[in-house]
Amino acid sequence: MGLIAAVLVANAFATHRVLRSDYYSAIQKSGQLAIVWLIPFLGVTVVWSFLRAQINWEKYDTRAFPEPTKKMLSEQIQNSILESANHIAPE
């Protein structure tokens, strides 16, 4: 009974962290939640390791089709400032 409670608590915690993550898209979150709840021990371990790897995600944002992130917006702002100052040619 204690083992079942531990799995439920770990799954609930991982679910909370996945839902609060800004790094993953809605489809990725759905897939990760399915893994957490359908594969009892391994699922939460795998998803938790992905979450831990994304602690500093803004620095290492490598998604193929990212939503507008702080990193992307700051680069766009910086590029527009440099373009207006004629430091780089507009694309």
Structural notes for this entry:
By secondary structure, this protein is an all-alpha fold. It folds into two domains: 2-55; 61-91, no CATH class. 67% of the residues lie in helices and 0% in strands. It is built from four helices and no strands. Helix 1 (2-20) runs antiparallel to helix 2, helix 1 (2-20) runs parallel beside helix 3 and helix 2 (26-38) runs antiparallel to helix 3 (40-53). The termini are far apart. The relative contact order is 0.10. The mean pLDDT is 78.
The backbone outline, from C-alpha atoms, is rod-shaped
**Total strand segments:** 0
Instruction: Give the overall pLDDT as a whole number.
Output: 78
Total domain units: 2
Task: Estimate the helix proportion, in percent.
Answer: 55-70%
Structural class: mainly alpha
Number of helices: 4
Low-confidence stretches: none
Rounded radius of gyration (Å):
19 Å
Subunit arrangement of the protein:
single chain
Strand content: under 5%
Taken in chain order, the helices and strands follow as HHHH
Give the termini distance in whole angstroms.
62 Å
Largest sheet: none
